[in-house]
Please model this.
Amino acid sequence: GENVEQHPSTLSVQEGDSAVIKCTYSDSASNYFPWYKQELGKRPQLIIDIRSNVGEKKDQRIAVTLNKTAKHFSLHITETQPEDSAVYFCAASSGGYQKVTFGIGTKLQVIP
Amino acid sequence: SAVISQKPSRDICQRGTSLTIQCQVDSQVTMMFWYRQQPGQSLTLIATANQGSEATYESGFVIDKFPISRPNLTFSTLTVSNMSPEDSSIYLCSVDTSVADTQYFGPGTRLTVL
Model:
């Protein structure tokens, strides 16, 4: 089955700096890669996703890149703000109602 | 995205008892999923619930311990049976909207077993 590795497990950045979280996956059949943000005591919320036919996707301060050959994908947050502080999960799926496999999560702390 | 609700939001239960968690969606969805999230941990899939068929369980989870119902396309239940303190966790349902393979999560049920 799919295995998703995520690092770092914790990340502290100064407000205004960029944050990068990296993930690798094992199953070459995976073609859908969502990222979730989970604030303390809240449900995971989808923040951005990317499919295997796209190399990069941006949404305001958030971007995701995908290297299918190397089987890794990354989340980039620019101009970080204190409200970006949360746990971020990467995930991989082969789509078509198949299960989603999650990484271990990265706890991001943005220091004002 | 779908609007998903769960009941109860939290509960404190005694060892040996069972708790049924309900998940309700405001639109028809093909697949519903049940996850467990232990404190500070990632999301672990318990089972996939497809309407009209038996749930599919992941390794380490069995039907006798976590029976699931999926009576229609907007509702599912997960029962945590014969509970022990090790079952203390957050249980979340999610749905696949079928639009773009995206899963959306319910608010979760925080279970404490004494």
Notes: The two ends of chain B are 36 Å apart (CA to CA). DSSP finds no helices and eleven strands in chain B.
